[in-house]
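We treat protein structure as text, and this decision shapes the records that our systems exchange. We quote a single record here, exactly as it is kept in our systems:
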Amino acid sequence: MFLDTPRRPSRSAFFLILLASVWLAVFGNVALWRSLTQLPDLKGWHGLLFGAAFALIIASATTALLSLLAWRWTLKPAISLLLLLAAFATYYMLMYGIVVDTPMVTNVFQTDAREARDQLSWRLGVTVLFLAVLPMIWLWRQPTTYASIGTQVMRNVLLCVAALTVTLGTTQLVFQDFASLMRNHTQLRYQINPLNSVYALLDLTVVPSDQPSGPLQPLGVDAHITPRTGAAQHPPLLLFVLGETARSANFSLNGYARLTNPLLAKENVTSFTQVASCGTSTAESVPCMFSHLGREGYAKRSHDFENWLDVLQRAGYAVLWMDNQSGCKGQCDRIPNLNTSELKLPDQCEDGECRDTVMLTQLDKELAKLPSERRARGTVVVMHQMGSHGPAYFKRTPAAFKPFVPECTDTSLSQCNQAQVVNAYDNTLVFTDYFLSRAIGWLKDKEKTAATALFYVADHGESLGENNLYLHGLPYAMAPAEQKQVPLITWLSPTFETQSRIKTSCLQKQRDRALSHDHLFHSVLGLMAVKTEVYQPTLDLFADCANR
């Protein structure tokens, strides 16, 4: 005779919702509680009581959210999703000091397998295990009772109303402190788990009001190449290098104490020192960098437009995009393009990643594929670097390009001391210096048949542990200068200077002028002598020197 196995007690949906909400509010917000303890105005009993009230607000708001999903086939999946969102967000907020907002979630969706692999660590696994996986195992093992449809509807409505009442009532009790906190420390609102992730996901998928709509709008339909005057002309050849995660402050060309640009220092380059990015992430900055709208206009746009690559192609130039990263974010969809990141060249690639120099090995072959009649007018090549992509900075550089040691080899950067993090990051800039010098060398070899030039600018900067912040992606208004100040470097061959009448000596006198990504659209068109009604000479960084 078999013994009866004791049956687990059946749990009500109400019990599971309350338990999940309390767990998420208390343990899923460790990063938020850490931030609160660091605020001087929330010390002692006052801070403790406010923290308890804040936890109650989060728990009751989460309860209200889950009450809408308290049905037989949706409740446990919904709780599981919130647990996972909170666990991953907690890890990244604790390790890197980031926050979770719409642009950050966009970055997550655009992350490829290689980038995701760099993020994996045993600490991430432990965090997700304890905050999400173990609670999920317990959750799915619980027998759960549900009422009839009519009764369940009534219960869900009452629970939602009660939860919202508690949320609003508790907020009212601590309103003065709460309003002051949200106003003076805006980053905290993006640390509220899991509501931050839910809001960002809804903003991306459900709320359409602020999203551009309609077909892609044409741009520069009147674009044409202005004939150069003077001696026999060579067709222009521009390499536009789109840097990745490079912060201006760490370039020795801009006054950094370490020699991170030893090779470029030997070239006749201009390094502009005061350049602001469009955004603090690749997903934000790259489309904005190629737009004519500028940062503010791009954020408020109601339609998507073609970019300066389309305008150059429409004017008659040969245009090519080479990518050694996760893609062009839609900017190269209408021009010839090549992704080199997955090539398997033994001298350029290892461990599933290719060095940026791989693009130079493919350049001549790819240029030969472009229409000869366009190349006769001129060519523009965009090279999108892997650059200083983190957090695995140490993977970006071969052994010969590691002058700064010891370097951090842990992708959880906060586990290394800051000096090691900076060493690993600065080594990536040394390799970028080598890549750019190689690119200039390639351009010099083409001078007999082309007027050559190089334009380098990064998409955004990077935090390296300042104020316990790492990586990038903070909302622009609260992001530190390290995430927004980027390098911009130009090199013009003697032939290009003669034909364009733009002198490097003139540019060097203006290297400290205030610039931003807003200038890129008009500067590239000006550099390539393209005229169109959308071109604004006041935003062309070369215009003053071209007219002298």
Residues 1-5 have pLDDT under 50 and may be disordered. Residues 240-546 form a domain with the Alkaline Phosphatase, subunit A fold (CATH 3.40.720.10).
